[in-house]
Structure prediction request, 340 residues.
Amino acid sequence: MAGPNRSSLIAKLNKVLKQHYKPIPVDGDRPLLEHMLFACCLENAPYAKAEKIYEHLSSSFFDWNEVRVSTVKELAESMRELPDPAAAASNLKSVLQTVFEATYSFDLENVKKQNIGVGIKRLAKMEGASPFVVAYVTQHALGGHSIPLDRGAVELLYIVGLATDAERKSGAVAGLERAIPKNKGAEFASLLHQLAADFVANPLAPAMKTLLLSINSDAKDRLPKRGQKILHREPPPAPPKPQVEKIDGKAAAKNGADKRALDKNRDAARHPGKVPGEKDDGKKMSTAKSIAAESSHKKPLKKGSPANASHGHGTTASHAGARSGAHKSATKRLTKRKPR
Prediction:
């Protein structure tokens, strides 16, 4: 049996949404920048919580500049009631920072004066402006026709068969703006967002399962499983690995020779008296060390010791021996002389 086509599924989805939810009016008097900031709070969150957090940021901080210079951690603490406070805080801070760096103020009203296509492109290039934020501002501030889809809404459309697996990964579902007329776009977007917020809050609720199956009975196999994360964000890309240049044998030998030359130069710098490349002779070094030690610790020997001749005292010893021999010869001559 063939499943329902796309047009009939969208009509059935709109009918079920009207049975369970009521449209929520949007404050159209907000400036364009405040629409963006509110959309950062509204993404994947119920309207009531988003309004509460937005009012808290407006009243607890001195102005938007104080919000801009606050850390993401501080903002996330103030926005902790949202489903993903860290992501909402990061987007909101990035939007404020981008606007301030471009205009040195917090005013985007000049975007309304531009062509709507140019304005949408400008908003899409802003850091922190997610596709949901851009679509929300397009619908409520620029007067365009766009259905804001956050992560929860895309997951819902995939489950009921209105989004392919590729559209689910990209976060963009084609055909909704053609199937929903412009004068019904804000109402449909409000109803769909309420269902998506309830789905994000409790995707395994029995009432949610019953509601989704009432839209399309073939959605049973695509229902979320226990432990599945709805608000799954892709991890940041890993830094590129350094490229290792492959070299042949000759280049490797040249690199080895260069390395040895570098080592010699390093040794020469550490030992200035040594000729680069000269090998140390262990025997010569030990002899030089012994001579240096002997000369530095030399002590005078006692007079008459056998080593005197070898230590520079040979002259004194020879003079003493000569005097003793002369004395003996004179005595001998006196004894041989006869008395007169």
Summary: DSSP finds 16 helices and no strands in the chain.
